[in-house]
Design brief:
This protein is mostly helical and 148 residues long. The chain folds into 2 domains: 46 residues, no CATH class; 96 residues. The protein has 7 helices and no strands. Helix 4 packs antiparallel against helix 5, helix 4 packs parallel to helix 7 and helix 5 runs antiparallel to helix 7. The N and C termini lie far apart (47 Å). 18% of the residues are buried.
């Protein structure tokens, strides 16, 4: 029954009134904290365009493919090479696109001359490339520390 209500909950984000009705209904339940957390995470995902989970899963998929290719080429001793390289590549792209690699004067000049839409696009690309790179680095570190 909880799953059925969660399915209904996902479709009611159009108005605040519906959301407050659902919240008042779920406060009577034991797992209302879980439901509230689900609602908050769902709102964050929608505010970011709903794509954050997609890019995280792309990163996980790339790390699994990288580990499998590394295992096939070098064996278990160097299984972290390709996954770590992919992670460093995407984190590097994220750092360059974010503008964090420049001096304070240049950062202030860039901030003053870009529009709000350009800033939103830059932050979006930064966030997405970081979401692709982080799972790759985590998997590479885990393989390095457990199998090296």
């Amino acid at each position: 029954m909880n799953q059925l209500i969660l399915i209904k909950l996902t479709g009611c984000f159009n108005t605040t009134r519906r959301l407050s009705i659902w919240r008042s209904f779920f406060t009577k339940w034991q797992d209302s904290a879980v439901i509230e957390t689900y609602v908050i995470l769902r709102r964050i995902n929608k505010s970011r365009g709903g794509y954050s989970l997609r890019y995280f899963l792309i990163g996980v998929l790339l790390s699994v493919i990288g580990v499998l290719v590394s295992l096939a080429v070098w064996g278990i001793d160097k299984a972290y090479f390709i996954s770590g390289g992919i992670g460093l590549f995407f984190i590097g792209i994220s750092m360059v696109v974010s503008g964090s690699m420049v001096s304070g004067d240049q950062m202030r000049a860039n901030f003053a001359t870009e529009s709000a839409e350009d800033r939103r696009n830059r932050n979006s690309v930064t966030f997405r490339t970081a979401l692709i790179g982080i799972p790759n680095l985590v998997i590479a570190f885990l393989i390095y520390f457990f199998f090296k």
